[in-house]
Design goal:
Layout: E1 14-19, H1 34-41, H2 45-66, E2 74-75, E3 83-85, E4 90-96, E5 99-105, E6 110-115, H3 122-129, H4 132-141, H5 144-160, E7 172-175, E8 179-182, E9 189-196, E10 199-206, E11 219-223, E12 237-238, E13 242-252
Parallel strand pairs: 1-11, 8-13
Antiparallel strand pairs: 1-5, 2-3, 4-5, 6-10, 7-8, 9-10, 9-13, 11-12
């Protein structure tokens, strides 16, 4: 599937991707908020470049989603889970090995990405942190790619529901064939997992009022990387071909 859009439908969640540039700045850009500048000052090397790229991407994503100028957009202080300007937008951020992702929506959501070729000590993680049902099918399948899909699902779920990893990895159970069961019975959720730019990208978001899983896939756009000075001129879209992996409801866990 190919995705290249200049406008975002506010009724659909959207995923915005960009590649990190290996370019540092001695001082925080003028568009950064005071708390972002303080955070940047504590960072060095690749983490500093990653932070610059992700904060630039947040503003580009909010601008494309809302129609505002990038210079008018910024997240709330601290963890960027919502916009301060323009108000009313929820955010989720993920970055790994040179690729950054920002998801935007009018409702809470969570995104996670992982390089598809990553080979962590997945069997140990599965045995230590996953449910018995997950351990049974994942260890039998002996497939690191299935583990990565499961891991990104759990990470995105915890971001969407506003929780950390500690003590919460089992609140979403991923069963064989990626049947999903969560601990949020009062709300309908769904998950979309896709392959793009060599990465697994997973988004979890509500489907309130549409629990039959007929909603379309999230919009996905690859933006041109930041310029060397990280200025906030609107970033053009690049051609992007992505592969859908699965689009599932998250049912209430029995």
């Amino acid at each position: 599937m190919a995705g290249q859009s200049n406008d975002c439908n506010p009724d659909r969640p959207a995923i915005w991707l960009c590649h990190q540039i290996n370019r540092n700045l001695s001082q925080a850009p003028a568009w950064m908020t005071a708390d972002e500048g303080e955070t940047l000052a504590r960072l060095e090397g690749p983490r500093r470049q990653e932070y610059l790229t992700s904060r630039w991407l947040i503003r580009q994503a909010l601008a494309r989603a809302s129609g505002e100028a990038p210079t008018s957009c910024h997240p709330i202080p601290g963890r960027p889970v919502a916009s301060a300007s323009p108000q009313g937008w929820h955010l989720s951020l993920s970055h790994s090995q040179g690729l950054a992702a920002c998801a935007t929506s009018r409702t809470a959501l969570g995104i996670d990405l992982e390089p598809s070729q990553r080979r962590p000590d997945w069997a140990r993680v599965t045995t230590r942190w996953f449910t018995p049902v997950e351990q049974e099918w994942l260890l039998k399948a002996d497939d690191p790619f299935s583990f990565l899909k499961t891991w990104t699902l759990k990470e995105a779920w915890l971001k969407a529901t506003g929780r950390g990893i500690a003590g919460n990895l089992q609140t979403l159970e991923v069963r064989k064939n990626f049947e999903l069961y969560g601990d949020q019975p009062d709300r309908h959720w769904q998950a979309s997992c896709l392959y793009a730019e060599g990465f697994l990208v997973t988004l979890v978001y509500p489907c309130d009022g549409n629990p039959d899983n007929t909603s379309p896939w999230p919009e996905i756009t690859l933006l041109e990387p930041p310029p060397d000075d990280y200025n906030l001129e609107p970033a053009p879209s690049l051609d992007l071909t992505w592969e859908p992996l699965f689009h599932r409801l998250i049912r209430a866990r029995p």
